[in-house]
Amino acid sequence: MDTDAVDIGSGFAGLYALYKLREAGLSVRVFERGDGVGGTWYWNRYPGARVDIQSVEYMFTKFPDLEQEWDWTELMPAQAEIERYLNWVTDRLELRDRITFRTAVRGATYDDQTATWRVETDRGEQVVARFVVAATGCLSAPIEPAIAGLGRFTGDSLFTNRFPRDGYDFTGRRVAVIGTGSSGVQSIPVIAKQAAELFVLQRPAASPLPSPNRPLRPNELDELKAQYPDIRSAQWASPVGTARFGAVSFLGRRQLTNILDASWDERIAKLDELGFAGCFAWADVFFDVEANEAATRLYAEAIKRVVEDPRTAEDLVPHYPFGCKRVIIDEGYFETFNRDNVHLVNLRRNPISSIVPSGIQRRDDLLALDVIVYATGFDAMTGPLSRIDIRGRGGVSLREVWAESPKAYLGLGVAGFPNLFTVTGPGSPSVLTNMVTSIEHHVEWITACIGHLRAHGHRSIEADPAAQDDWAEHVPTFAGPIQVHPSCTSWYLGANVPGKTRYYMPYAGGLTRYMASCDEVVAHGYQGFVLT
Ligand code: NAP
Question: Which atom of ligand 1 is nearest to the CA of 329?
Fold first, then answer.
């Protein structure tokens, strides 16, 4: 064996896994395809990229000394600041020399005889390890949009999820952004301020909520630092790993009134009081399709209050239930459509036919362009590992297993793939929570598990197929009619990837309940896993 563990990736998960496993006495090799650490925060450096969780909760929570030394400047910091934070942590914890950069893992094959993995990189290196920790992230496999003629454009093509390191100057240019998920909605207001003309090519309308972001006031961070122990306790007691307002916790205080019991005037009063958030400050909106439709009508009213052109305002109203997709936190998105240089292009009315050398050909017209920005999303959760040729016992391919059904027991391991740990894998709360807390929980669980195996002389651990099936049936039971609504094209369901099995992948039962399940499995001697 060359090393005890191979850790794929060096974002929050990869860095914490390296730290914890090294602390537990294991030798670890980390392979990272980028030339720096950061994962998501390394690749997604598009204009306007920022986190949708508050800074003081979007950091490692288990380093009480270290956290006092790091100074956030904003409530919800931008990509560059988070990337700086992760580089700082890497250096303070002396992790960098264990990471091999510019090296992607191409394949991994399990050897039943030795209970080891042979990991192969795109640079031809082969490493034999007992354990593989897949810290590959949930949103790291970009999808190529299925548009004819993609390579024919003679202007500049940019992708939000692998944006040029040195940025891009849109000044004086005719630009199109395709896609109105979080990446599109965040980049559009920033690009609009530079570009000569900006065309926003919208298939589904977004339903963002305005960001509370602002610089932290003088002394505010000092006060927050003094409260870090309480903030951490609140985070770990929260079902989403964050107790402050953000994309996964925006519901905030518990609502008592149903929108369906309220008159139109009462609904409007809520809008007057809370703005866009007033559309969703009701008890029934996320559980009842009819209530959700009522909220969307109120949302349409909120858009009309901001967007001056009535046709644009109408085109910006979503046609799918609010909450079926990840909530987007925006900074000035709707206001952007009042600029003279910004044009909403409704693809539902006039779809894209193809990309042509001079721009984008739609069914009824041609958009002549200098730049196309693709904000078209990811093959989420299963995509990152399915793109690696992973072969478990008997040469079985993980890609093929997951093509049929994206299962993982507790989201941590897959039957037939011993000693492969999937950090925040499908079947765990991951993307429905603050990723940092979910990552910390998984990495600590994995470290303790490996410690247990070593202490008891076991060579391998593997999910039992029956336990995995039970878990896979259990997970979608938490997703309600809004999340699985037929009109929903969310990546939670895999519905944004042509041909992907439609299955609600994240565990929506809450982090605290999920952690209790993981504890119970351990307390019963790793029930549902087979140890050899
Ligand atoms: P996304 O939410 O999947 O949005 C992709 C957009 O592109 C959708 O509007 C999609 O429409 C559209 N699209 C895809 N292919 C298209 C085509 N061929 N023609 C026209 N439109 C097309 O992807 P994302 O914006 O990158 O965000 C993904 C996730 O990353 C987010 O949900 C969030 O969890 C995370 N993220 C977070 C932040 C943050 O924290 N601040 C920022 C960015 C991303 P359809 O829905 O019709 O497919």
Answer: 41
Q: What is the pLDDT of residue 144?
A: 87
Of all helices (H) and strands (E), which one includes residue 411?
none
Q: Distance (Å, rounded) from C-alpha 266 to C-alpha 261?
A: 10
Are 449 and 526 a contacting pair, CB within 8 Å?
A: yes
Cβ atoms 30, 98 nearer than 8 A: yes
> What is the enclosing helix (H) or strand (E) of 266?
helix 264-274
Which residue's CA is minimally distant from atom 14 of ligand 1?
Answer: 376
474 vs 293: CA distance, rounded Å: 28
> Measuring from each residue's beta carbon to the nearest atom of ligand 1, which residues come in under 6 Å?
50-52, 139, 145-147, 178-184, 186, 203-204, 326, 347, 352, 375-378, 431, 489, 491, 496
Q: Cβ distance 175 to 155 under 8 Å?
A: no
Q: Between vectors from CA 163 to CA 181 and to CA 47, what angle results, nearest 5°?
A: 60
> How far does Cα 241 stand from its chain's mean position?
14
pLDDT more than 90, % of the chain: 96
Q: Which of 12, 160, 183, 493 to mutate to test the pocket of ligand 1 (most atoms within 8 A of CB)?
A: 183
Residue 247: the pLDDT is 85
Is pTM beyond 0.70 here?
yes
Distance 184 CA to ligand 1 centre (A): 7
Bridge partner list, 389: 107
Q: Which residues of 226-255 are buried (b: 16+ CB within 10 A; e: fewer)?
A: eebeebbeebbebbbbbbbbbbbbbbeeeb
